Amino acid sequence: MPPLRNARQELVAQALASGATKFDAYAAAGYEPDYGNACRLTGKDKVRARVAEIQSGGVELAQMTVASLVGAADEIRELAIQHRQLSAGVAAIKEIGILTGLRIDRREVGEPGEFARLSDEELLQLVQGSVELVEIPDDDI
After folding, report:
1. From residue 119, how far is each of 113, 114, 115, 123, 125 by CA, in Å?
2. How many CB atoms are closer than 10 A to CB 95?
3. Which of 11, 53, 126, 132 has its CA 20 to 30 A from that of 67?
């Protein structure tokens, strides 16, 4: 079912599908707040059908789990190996590792050269706040 022709009725249907009350959905769509009219509009077959359709789309998305994603990545890995596309196979293996939590994708956060803007004293204070410094005697270097 395509979106409702009346844009405000579509907004009501979307708000109801996301869990809003009839009254709140009616008011959020720009209608003058009125309990009777809210109940009348939300009881219309086309609005109820649209709400059901929006909610069923969410159920399909929620059914996608880590296990299903790992299964799909494993199928892709097998196909990649069969077709001698080793880089695609490696990418699938990496994705499986990330999904299962065995591989952690780490990225540096911040701008390039962010620490270069700090003075030596500021950098030392930053490091001392999180790491205990150990002095190394000059003869051990």
Report:
1. 12, 11, 8, 6, 10
2. 19
3. 53
**Three-state DSSP string of the chain:** CCCCCCHHHHHHHHHHHCCCCHHHHHHHCCCCCCHHHHHHHHCCHHHHHHHHHHHHHHHHHHCCCHHHHHHHHHHHHHHHHHCCCHHHHHHHHHHHHHHHCCCCCCCCCCCCCCHHHCCHHHHHHHHHHHCCCCCCCHHHC
Q: Where in the sequence is the domain holding 74, given as residue range(s)? A: 66-100
Q: 């789990």: which residue's tokens?
A: 65
Per-residue pLDDT at 64: 65
pLDDT digits (tens, 9 = 90+) for 17-65: 989 999 999 999 999 999 999 999 999 999 999 999 888 875 555 566 7
- The answer as to whether 116 is a domain residue is no
Assigned token pair, 115: 């620490």
Dist. CA 103–CA 100, nearest whole Å: 8
